[in-house]
Amino acid sequence: MFKVNALGAQDEVRFQKILSSLMMDQRVKEMKLYIQHGVITTYEHCEQVARICYIINKYFGEKADMESLVRTAFLHDFYLYDWHEKKLKNKIHGFTHPGIAAKNAKKYFNITEKEKRAIESHMWPLTLHKIPTSREAWILCMADKYVASIETAMMRK
Ligand SMILES: [Fe+2]
Ligand SMILES: [Fe+2]
């Protein structure tokens, strides 16, 4: 798995601790079965986005709630299906998966309304009227684009 801007040892321990219960959950582990971009699984993608969120928040003085941010980022693509299958719903995946992931995260992990809104708005501006409205949501939205761009670029031959 690629790891850009890997965390220092202490931060890695803190990062893993924040996510430890989610990482042990069978439903979360199911994200290992789906490919996000190229050879990267959805699980790896979510972990990487969470890591970049951690780095951004730390760099800017932790003005966002670190635990909430990292957990939300880890669940931001918790939609649990293979979007590469040629089904109708997968053609509009970009627009619909934030809502599905947010619903799953709410159902299984009882996330807060603020966290739910952050997941729903992570694809903005694609989802025009789901605009990030919190610091956590903005960081997630940016980190996801950064990681997705790298993953997509690495797919090219
Ligand atoms: Fe997404
Ligand atoms: Fe994503």
Task: Walk me through the structure.
By secondary structure, this protein is mainly alpha-helical. It has a single domain (9-155), classed as Hypothetical protein af1432 (Orthogonal Bundle). 62% of the residues lie in helices and 3% in strands. It has helices spanning 9-24, 26-29, 42-59, 66-74, 88-91, 93-109, 113-120, 135-155, and strands at 35-37, 40-41. It has a two-stranded antiparallel sheet. A hairpin with a 2-residue loop joins strand 1 and strand 2. It is globular, with a radius of gyration of 15 Å. Residues 76-77, 97, 122-123, 144 line the site of one fe (ii) ion. The site of one fe (ii) ion (FE2) has 6 residues, from loops.
Distance between the termini: 18 Å
Structural class: mainly alpha
What name is given to the CATH topology? Hypothetical protein af1432
Record the strand order, biggest sheet. Answer: 1-2
Radius of gyration: 15 Å
- Tell me which ligands are bound: fe (ii) ion
Number of helices: 8
Q: What would CATH call the architecture?
A: Orthogonal Bundle
Helix content: 55-70%
CATH class: Mainly Alpha
Strand content: under 5%
